[in-house]
Automatic annotation (TrEMBL):
Keywords: Membrane, Transmembrane, Transmembrane helix. Pfam families: Claudin_TMEM179-179B. This is Transmembrane protein 179. It comes from Danionella cerebrum. InterPro entries: TMEM179, TMEM179-179B. The chain crosses the membrane at residues 7-31.
Length: 125
């Protein structure tokens, strides 16, 4: 029974990590999508331009900005966003499910969350 509990705990931890890593992919992609008005910055071509400006009060300063020649294909941002959102949702559901079974301590009957763990535990005894 202790092995089953440890496997469920490892399962919860793995899904928690998948949620964290999914968010680490989705959040920057969403921020870039909103900053670039829906255009994809991945695989785009461009350069930084620095310009010297003279202000009306007599002061000068430098301004740099990004000049994009060609934006990346939309699929380059849509696919990683889809995979990241799916990973977050799937990891959250499976992690919650594993946590539920970990705290409820269901017997190894028909309600076992991972049928392979019951076979593994029986094989080692």
């Amino acid at each position: 029974m202790e092995l089953d509990r440890r496997l469920l705990l490892a399962h919860c931890a793995a899904h928690a990590l998948s949620v964290i890593f999914g968010l680490l992919a989705v959040i920057p992609l969403a921020l870039n999508g909103s900053a670039f008005k829906g255009r994809c910055a991945l695989f785009s071509q461009g350069f930084w331009r620095t310009e010297n400006l003279t202000f009306s009060g007599g002061g000068t300063g430098e301004v740099s900005h990004l000049v994009v020649r060609q934006w990346g294909p939309p699929a380059a941002c849509q696919f990683p966003t889809f995979v990241g959102v799916f990973t977050v949702l799937y990891g959250a559901v499976q992690g919650w499910r594993s946590l539920f079974y970990l705290h409820r301590r269901h017997d190894e009957g028909e309600c076992d969350p991972q049928p392979g763990t019951a076979l593994l535990v029986q094989h080692h005894h």
